[in-house]
Amino acid sequence: MGRHEALSDMMQRSGPAPAPGEAGGIVLSDVWLDRGQTPLFRGLSLTLTERRIGLVGANGSGKSSLLRLLNGLITPARGDITVADLDARKHRRDLPGRVGFVFQNVEHQILFPTVREEIAFGLAEQGLARAEARAQADALLAAHGCAGWGERAVEELSEGQKQLVCILAAIAPAPPILAMDEPLASLDLATRLALLARLARLPQQILMASHDLDLLADFDRILWLEAGIVVADGTPADVLPRYRAHEMARAAAAAEAALP
To answer: Residue limits of the ABC transporter domain (predicted)?
Structure first.
């Protein structure tokens, strides 16, 4: 049995997916996607309405690609995606206003030299006057305990502070959905826990890819991806122990294979 066949068999045993047709959220229908010359998604269908959804899987499993599809950073070869009532193909330019995106590497996201400018950019893109965008940026900073940060140079911030700025920049335009690709991976434990507490208080629907399973333990739903296939889909209590056991077995096999 090949890898895809084995994964498909696991997927069939993982339990039913959510019923299609639920209002709001995200719906993917028969989505096909290639990553370069390599096939990834082959008929992926999902309905995502839960408030906090975690994505787990090995590097290259499709987590980042799934998140980027939702924001319009990439488009599928075929299939339909609806995000917050928008057809992702027809309204690709409007998707960033519906899906705030937070990259793993802050250097891939930050564009401006000061904190205020970085956060105000998305607001100005929505049509706000420059002064109003800057005022709203300052108000958002104050609401998250960062009053007085506006004039600070981004390059002088710690990694945790930069990550917080990226998150605030993503939520400033008030998108209904927040897609986060390993947003806390480079942070120390205390900073990660503080940012996770902030995220828990946000009203947005959150989709987060993470290798830190403890951070996803109280999410509403977990998707386990392998080679573009949803291996398991359910609660953290159901999916995370299975995924952890699978990865431990894979690591043990790799270590044994490396022995002389």
So the answer is: 26-252
